[in-house]
Amino acid sequence: MTCNELTVRAHEMSLAVKTWGDPGNPAIIALHGWQDNAGTFDRLASLLPDFYWIVPDLPGHGKSEHRGKGAEYTLWAYCPEVMALADAMSLDTFILVGHSMGGGIANLLAGLYPERISKLILLDIIGVVTSALEDTVMHMRAAVQQRVEQPLRKAGLYSSLELAIAARAKRGITAEAASLLAARGVKQGDDGYFWGHDQRLILKRTLSLNEEQMALFLQAIDCPVLVIASREAVVREAVIQKRVALVKNIQMEKLSGGHHQHLDGDVGAIATLMGSFLAQK
């Protein structure tokens, strides 16, 4: 299946975008996870060739532009950029796929724009990571103090591309999977190789949704939803079940792989589940 590289101006950001397949096929916009990039869907897209895959490096990730000075990387900040990407690609409606952080963004968008999302597929996430309402002040103070008191750390330097890949693999994925991410994520400078995502991604969040707010977004989703969870689900099982109960039309599946199972696990099993779900009328 043919892969193309595009640069798309979306909202106020320049996005690097990978596409696979025939633009005449049903469109999928796929959103990657935190500190990952569009390479995370390379294996999965190749197994579902009857769709037109549109996969951006989200701002601050991969080959896309970083946010300007003083900006923050909240989930909702990505929403205008994804919708602007859909507009730039002339999509009235589209299928939305999201992994981890990308799944959180996809959840918000499916609630905000139910008329434009035809189906929603969530990989090892449902909803977003929330905070208790009563912890709001404490969390915001900690985030503000971090920005005031701690200089932003510099990206780690590695003497070779192989060492940069090995460092990413130590964070829970295979070396092969890390290599796919490195193709877009690792840059070479005068002093060595480094992962080029914006270091502000590691800062504490100044504000989070609480469960009550998250519930409103889940209840607003009109399209069919498929959740493929892993044995290492990032959200607790009890929370998952409560959130699943809020969605009108949802199918829940669980596989034995890890959090990046769409990249380094049984990708064929995930593609089969997705293909069956997408074939449903």
Question: Care to describe what's here?
Answer:
This protein has 281 residues and is α/β, with parallel strands linked by helices. It has one domain (3-131, 207-279): Rossmann fold (3-Layer(aba) Sandwich), CATH 3.40.50.1820. 35% of the residues lie in helices and 20% in strands. The strands form two sheets. It has an eight-stranded mixed beta sheet with strand order 1-2-4-3-5-6-9-10, sandwiched between helices. Strands 7-8 form a two-stranded antiparallel sheet.
Give me the secondary-structure category: alpha/beta
Q: Tally the structural domains.
A: 1
β-sheet strand percentage? 15-25%
What is the average per-residue confidence, as pLDDT, rounded to a whole number?
95
Task: Say what the CATH topology is.
Answer: Rossmann fold
The total beta strand count reads 10
CATH architecture: 3-Layer(aba) Sandwich
- The N- to C-terminal Cα distance equals 25 Å
Which regions have little confidence, pLDDT < 50, spanning 5+ residues?
none
Described by strand count, sense and barrel closure, the largest sheet is: 8 strands, mixed
The CATH homologous superfamily name equals Alpha/Beta hydrolase fold, catalytic domain
Count of individual helical segments: 10
Rg over CA atoms: 18 Å
